[in-house]
Amino acid sequence: MWTKDKILTREHLPAAVAAWRAQGRKVVFTNGCFDLLHLGHVDYLEQARHLGDALVVGLNTDASVGALKPGRPIQDETARARILASLAFVDAVVLFGEPTPLALIELVQPDVLVKGDDYAIDGIVGHELVLNRGGQVLTVPLVSGYSTSRIIERILGL
């Protein structure tokens, strides 16, 4: 499979999710900017995937990253999506431009919603939706010392 085939539109995502569910696969959802992919990202995504059988990653568009983090992203959404899709444990990447991924979570209806342990469960967007349908909302430990901001600061000598 080509990495581009794992980058899905919102129109194509429901069919992929339905096919995974028909195969008995547990669908996991997470989201983020993933600007400069680093060990922390890889570890986090790999842990998320191990909580189920298919991992969908909601990826912030360039505009939504810029709204959250002025001066960013460093890499455009096409590059970020292709890099994420190249990871064996990522099954689908879907862009979203809204301030939160709630509409995407509603579309996916994941069995497991995952964020890093820097979030409280009740602070994770979509937690009520997932819990109300009998799913799980979990956090996974983050690798200490890794962040895109820290990498940028190091490059700039700050």
Which features characterize this protein?
158 residues, alpha/beta, five-stranded parallel β-sheet, 7 helices, 37% helix, nucleotidyltransferase, ATP-binding, Archaeal_FAD_synthase, transferase, Rossmann-like_a/b/a_fold
Could you explain the architecture of this structure?
The protein is α/β, with parallel strands linked by helices and 158 residues long. The protein is 37% helix and 18% strand. A 5-stranded parallel beta sheet has the order 3-2-1-4-5, sandwiched between helices. Strand 1 (27-32), helix 2 and strand 2 form a beta-alpha-beta unit. It is globular, with a radius of gyration of 15 Å. The N and C termini lie far apart (41 Å). The relative contact order is 0.20. The model has no long low-confidence stretch (mean pLDDT 93). It catalyses: D-glycero-beta-D-manno-heptose 1-phosphate + ATP + H(+) = ADP-D-glycero-beta-D-manno-heptose + diphosphate. This is D-glycero-beta-D-manno-heptose 1-phosphate adenylyltransferase. Residues 29-154 form the Cytidyltransferase-like domain.
